[in-house]
Amino acid sequence: MKGKETERVEARSPRTHLDREQVIEAAARLVKRHGPEALTMRALAAELGAAVTSIYWHVGNRESLLDALVERTLADLGEIRATGRTPAQRVAAVARALRHQLLDHPHLVAMVHERGLTERMFLPAQRTLVHEVHRAGLRGARAAEAVRAVQVHVVGHVLVERYRERAPEQHPGEEELWTARAAEEDGALARALAGPVDPETLFATSVRALVTGLLGPAT
Q1: Alpha-carbon span 207 to 174, nearest angstrom
Q2: Which of 95, 115, 91, 125 is closest to 31 using CA atoms?
Q3: What is the CA radius of gyration of the chain?
Q4: Domain 2-76: homologous superfamily in CATH
Q5: What's the start-to-end Cα distance of the chain, in Å?
Q6: Is 2 helix (H, G, I), strand (E, B) or coil?
Q7: DSSP secondary structure code for residue 36 in this structure
Q8: Rounded to an integer, what distance in angstroms lies between the CA atom of residue 191 and that of residue 202?
Q9: Average pLDDT over residues 119-130
Q10: How far is it, in rounded angstroms, from Cα 118 to Cα 73?
Q11: pLDDT in tens, 184-198
């Protein structure tokens, strides 16, 4: 009986062995699950099983914690490497990698944006894209236009994907809208548009077409 009572007391006791890295890691978990607005010192203390004063001791106030978390996020995103044999394949690979970064860290990316560091977040991908468009023979304004076009395409695609995920069910849906047109001139088109959207395939198709145009002969 005494042993069980001791276990209950220990479970309620705050953690004494805590360091700054553990606090930042727990903050990242909270933001990843619930978004930046859920990150409060009390919520973080509860997540760690520690006293609020201990959190302040290790990371300062909430603003300092957010700054530290943003720096960690930027470091974790890291460099983006290009793969593939041709310039078009390598640029498309960078675009895919950037898209996955944004999709895998939605709340952390939102937090970086709120802190006014979006351009810094995109800098590693931009550097890699600049290197690849230079390898493809582009220079000056045309190279800058290609880099920005790829970046905007990725961000736009990610935003549309998130919108579709969060949007309420549509009435009528795509299937109902296009089934009625299946008997028209292009029935295969109507049936395809009535089916579900595959974001991976759609992104691969669109970015391939974009990159081919950007790296092709100037018009």
Answers
A1: 24
A2: 115
A3: 24
A4: Homeodomain-like (1.10.10.60)
A5: 84
A6: helix
A7: G
A8: 16
A9: 93
A10: 12
A11: 667 787 778 778 889
Domain boundaries, the chain: 2-76, 79-215
Which CATH number does the domain 79-215 belong to among 3.30.40.10, 1.10.357.10, 1.20.1250.20, 3.30.360.10? 1.10.357.10
Element (H, E) at 25: helix 20-34
pTM of the model: 0.77
Q: List, as one string, the DSSP characters of 135-204.
A: HTT--HHHHHHHHHHHHHHHHHHHHHHHHHHHSPPPSS-HHHHHHTTTTSS-HHHHHHHHSPP-HHHHHH
Q: Return the closest-CA partner of residue 87 out of 2, 214, 180, 182.
A: 214
Residues in the chain: 219
Based on DSSP, count helices (H) and strands (E) in the chain, helices before strands: 12, 0
Residues with Cβ within 8 Å of 37's Cβ and at least 6 positions away in sequence, in order, are none
Residue type (1 letter), 141: A
Apex 189 CA angle, 183 and 192, nearest 5: 110
